[in-house]
Amino acid sequence: MIVTNTPDKPLVYTNCAYCSSSDLPHFIVPGSNLALALVADVDAVLLAQQLRKRFINQVLTSGQRVTFEFLGNGYIFTVTQVAVEGQEKSDVERGMLSEDSYIVFEASKSSGIKITNQREAASSNIFKHKEFNLQSLGIGGLSNEFADIFRRAFASRVFPPHVASKLGVKHVKGMLLYGPPGTGKTLMARQIGKMLNGKDPKIVNGPEVLSKFVGETEKNVRDLFADAEQDQRTRGDESDLHVIIFDEIDAICKSRGSTRDGTGVHDSIVNQLLTKIDGVEALNNVLLIGMTNRKDLLDEALLRRVLYISIRFQVEISLPDENGRFQILQIHTNKMKENSFLAPDVNLQELAARTKNYSGAELEGVVKSAVSYALNRQLSLDDLTKTIDEESIKVTMEDFLNALHEVIPAFGASTDDLERCRLNGIVDCGQRHDHIFKRTMLLAEQVKVSRGSPLVTALLEGPSGSGKTAMAATVGIGSDFPYVKIISAESMIGLSEPSKCAQIVKVFEDAYKSTLSIIVLDDIERLLEYVAIGPRFSNLISQTLMVLLKRLPPKGKNMLVIGTTSEVSFLESVGICDAFSVTYHVPTLKTEDAKKVLQQLNVFSQGDIDAAAEALNDMPLKRLYMVVEMAAQGESGGSAEAIFSGKETIQMSHFYDCLQDIVRY
């Protein structure tokens, strides 16, 4: 062993040194039983000068091994790459070494040699391939996000370590991927780990780190960084990149004080992560990737200190746009197309346009559902042993359209809930109702094209049963917005005030992930738990609604909020009316309005319509339907089917009796 550095300089001249057991881990031991190692810093400039002098005008071939003595040490060089000026585009296997040639040195990982003072540099070989195609990796619709990740997390690592050192920058040590479930966060993290030419990534589910034993959780966190610590201790800046992937990081990095176990384990985990990444002996060969769909659960100090100082940046993996959905569908149907199982009538571009707000996982579910339809056509329940003709299996466009009805996006329009709000369909209720409906639809069109008003709010107020909810639901369905949700008190029965607020906030947060969204706040006074006696209402929910009604959505996202109420005076007193941009009064039916409705229902004779409409003056629409339903049953019941089919008509005497039953005097 040639001693080049010892604690005591005189020992260098003896070519001997004493190594204690605690010193041995600092030396790289070759792959043998020998407890000796060569530890040396080699000056690249001096080495290149001697190499040019020794092999001037000699032809070197790629793969050739050369022995060379430098400062009393014997070295073996392997020519890994040859580049000749003017022939960069062609693969050159050999070249002549001249005085103008420059040489880039790379030390073997197990040699213990550290190259210093290297001015020219080849790019770092941290990726397994020179170039890569995201679609070949199964990643679609995330080109912009991946480009951002590469620029901020890997650009500095592509260059040799000394370049980053001279620039005075530190490598990004991690990132947070957050977004709705099924958008490809875990897939992207796994593929990033596979693309890197370093150690295999460590994939850790958040709950796996936790342990019931005291101190074991912190030890599990330390063990994740043990290999990286050993690698950096022995190889320094030349060590491989160690990727640690934390799936569901919110399970172990919750907001401090939110858990009531009294152990403080979650706080200790955050402190342990800080120590390993930003401590005194901070690691520079680690890339920590955290993933969550609940960024709001993460500790604020973690987001501020760890994710902005240590992890550096956050990347939102949002719902794919139309082009992204097209790429995802291409990925999942690629093998079908190659094996001629995809019918020629399948139009992926049309499917991408139809699947608004579908996540990547939901698009995969659409493809699987379509395949199940195609396979089911080849099966017979009467004879499951029947021979299957593979060539006849074709996944058609009809299969995909049927699959769209089965796979409903989590962030899509809740069409079933909206249809339930207008069970009687849409009828012409007169000019006043038609005017309000058209004005509200214009607000939806305004939201689609508006650049200066990303948030538009409208309040529909009027007597109970006047058709406010049905009108709001019709606007939501007719607008063709990808995200439409209705918030009503019936979905929050039994919940506490904080739980109701959390549910309302979640709907708004989900809406912010869609480019266009409509939220219907049905019966706001019921959401506020309003009781006239007292009066009593929930101030917590009231303040939550007022904040959300004035909170602008993120850039590039537009939203329409439609509220309905039968207690407009109460909302004015608590200040909620002021939070809405416009307010429309939905009136009761006048005689001429009721006549139009009755004509469309076709349950009265022509001679009785005018009298019936006069009796229904100033009647809410919902109550009109109730009177008609009651009167259609007849004196002894059982005549409703004949009346609604047009074979019979309602008797006026029975109609007046029913009217008296529901009208309060």
Automatic annotation (TrEMBL):
Catalytic activity entry: ATP + H2O = ADP + phosphate + H(+)
GO biological process, one term: Golgi to plasma membrane protein transport
Note on how the cofactor is bound: Binds 1 Mg(2+) ion per subunit.
Names of the cofactor(s): Mg(2+)
Entry keyword Zinc: no
GO terms under cellular component: Golgi stack
The enzyme's E.C. designation: 3.6.4.6
SMART domains: AAA
Domain AAA+ ATPase: 171-319, 454-592
Pfam families: AAA (PF00004), AAA_lid_3 (PF17862), CDC48_2 (PF02933)
Domain of life (superkingdom): Eukaryota
Keyword Nuclease annotated: no
Chief location category: cytoplasm
Subcellular location field: Cytoplasm
GO molecular function list: ATP binding; ATP hydrolysis activity; metal ion binding
Xref: InterPro entries: AAA+_ATPase, AAA_lid_3, ATPase_AAA_core, ATPase_AAA_CS, Cdc48_dom2, CDC48_domain_2-like_sf, P-loop_NTPase, Vesicle-fus_ATPase
Alphabetized UniProt keyword annotations: ATP-binding, Cytoplasm, ER-Golgi transport, Hydrolase, Magnesium, Metal-binding, Nucleotide-binding, Protein transport, Transport
Function as written in the Swiss-Prot or TrEMBL entry: Required for vesicle-mediated transport. Catalyzes the fusion of transport vesicles within the Golgi cisternae. Is also required for transport from the endoplasmic reticulum to the Golgi stack. Seems to function as a fusion protein required for the delivery of cargo proteins to all compartments of the Golgi stack independent of vesicle origin.
Annotated PANTHER family: VESICLE-FUSING ATPASE, VESICULAR-FUSION PROTEIN NSF
Family stated for the protein in its record: Belongs to the AAA ATPase family.
Protein name, UniProt field: Vesicle-fusing ATPase
Organism, scientific name: Ambrosia artemisiifolia (Common ragweed)
Lineage of producing organism: Eukaryota, Viridiplantae, Streptophyta, Embryophyta, Tracheophyta
